[in-house]
């Protein structure tokens, strides 16, 4: 919305600052942060009043988690509301990539909200039917991927780029849509699996957002993209503003989610934020880099897949408990040790992912 003030820049030169993505990204960070700080306590009080017993705690989980009983969930509403308000205020709303990413974020957030709602009302950790949930996620992601293919020229619009190799792309043709949908859905569910300890998911999400804010800005700028020898995708620079909005909202949420958490993110937030990161990766043609930057989320998801496959095939478990953060808890790590060490891993992986921008 503020971007429209550029139209008056000829009369008031100071309004030229609204042209710059970097300025508007900073504005989005501060707006989202302030929004969550101001309205967060009211949202928490409202959710606690309506949910009663709060998020159900798994009976087969670590015993230390039983003390968290009664903590309200759906904290993703705080993050999404703050991020969306900031994005709508600071983004160039004529940019189609903005609406694609917002659409995925809101769509996945709605699915997560319904899942959280079922868990709270049924007092069970089992929510939305897995098949139905995945079906809706793939529908939203595939629709977004299809629109993305219309925004660029073929064959690049249906191709994937490889890190470290500046000229190598693989044109998937029509198969790009299911591939991109898999990336978005996989990212959403991987973040969802990571959200199991106080502060564990939100900080790696902010780290990934910071990395992709930079990638989006550089990919959307022809000069920087040419210098770094990465593929230029016109218009994606605006996605840095959305990523910044999530960083601001995430910082505000962390204030309330820090141990002992006053509220949990829930599927409302984790699905939406993961889907958003996946959508930005698809839009900027950095799907493979996402697997590096979001390597912590990949590790969490793979640990669950390995655990389930091993148990079904052999009757034995590879980990003491999955996702893998619970495995380390049962090994004797305190919750804060697991969380902080996983944050460190997320930072290292983000730096490795960003290194691919120059190592070509």
Automatic annotation (TrEMBL):
Subcellular localization, as worded in the UniProt entry: Cell membrane; Membrane
Enzyme class: transferase
Organism, as annotated: Roseibium aestuarii
GO molecular function: transferase activity
EC number(s) recorded for this UniProt protein: 2.7.8.13
Cofactor: Mg(2+)
Keyword annotations of the record: Cell cycle, Cell division, Cell membrane, Cell shape, Cell wall biogenesis/degradation, Magnesium, Membrane, Metal-binding, Peptidoglycan synthesis, Transferase, Transmembrane, Transmembrane helix
Topological type in the membrane: Multi-pass membrane protein
Protein's name according to its UniProt entry: Phospho-N-acetylmuramoyl-pentapeptide-transferase
Function per UniProt: Catalyzes the initial step of the lipid cycle reactions in the biosynthesis of the cell wall peptidoglycan: transfers peptidoglycan precursor phospho-MurNAc-pentapeptide from UDP-MurNAc-pentapeptide onto the lipid carrier undecaprenyl phosphate, yielding undecaprenyl-pyrophosphoryl-MurNAc-pentapeptide, known as lipid I.
């Amino acid at each position: 919305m503020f971007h429209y003030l550029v139209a008056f820049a000829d009369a008031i030169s100071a309004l030229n600052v609204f042209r710059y993505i970097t300025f508007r990204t900073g504005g989005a960070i501060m707006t989202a942060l302030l929004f969550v700080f101001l309205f967060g306590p009211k949202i928490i009080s409202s959710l606690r009043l309506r949910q009663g017993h709060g998020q159900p705690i798994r009976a087969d989980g670590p015993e230390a988690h039983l003390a968290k009983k009664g903590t309200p969930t759906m904290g993703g509403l705080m993050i999404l509301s703050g991020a969306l308000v900031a994005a709508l205020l600071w983004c160039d709303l004529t940019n189609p990539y903005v609406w694609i990413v917002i659409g995925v974020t809101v769509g996945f957030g709605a699915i997560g909200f319904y899942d959280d709602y079922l868990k709270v009302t049924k007092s069970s950790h089992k929510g939305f039917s897995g098949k139905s949930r995945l079906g809706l996620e793939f529908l939203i992601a595939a629709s977004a991927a299809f629109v993305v293919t219309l925004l660029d020229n073929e064959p690049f619009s249906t191709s994937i780029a490889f890190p470290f190799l500046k000229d190598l792309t693989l044109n998937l043709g029509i198969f790009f849509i299911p591939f991109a949908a898999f990336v978005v859905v996989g990212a959403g569910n991987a973040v969802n699996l990571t959200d199991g300890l106080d502060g564990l998911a939100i900080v790696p999400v902010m780290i990934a957002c910071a990395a992709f804010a930079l990638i989006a800005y550089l990919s959307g700028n022809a000069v920087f993209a040419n210098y770094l020898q990465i593929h230029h995708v016109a218009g994606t620079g605006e996605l840095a503003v959305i990523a910044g909005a999530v960083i601001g909202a995430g910082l505000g949420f962390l204030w309330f989610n820090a141990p002992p958490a006053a509220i949990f993110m829930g599927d409302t937030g984790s699905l939406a934020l993961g889907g958003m990161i996946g959508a930005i990766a698809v839009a900027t043609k950095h799907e493979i880099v996402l697997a590096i930057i979001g390597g912590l989320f990949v590790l969490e998801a793979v640990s669950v897949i390995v655990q389930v496959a091993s148990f079904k095939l052999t009757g034995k478990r590879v980990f003491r408990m999955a996702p893998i953060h619970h495995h380390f808890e049962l090994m004797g790590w305190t919750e804060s040790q697991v969380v902080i060490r996983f944050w460190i891993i997320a930072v290292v992986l983000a730096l490795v992912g960003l290194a691919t921008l120059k190592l070509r």
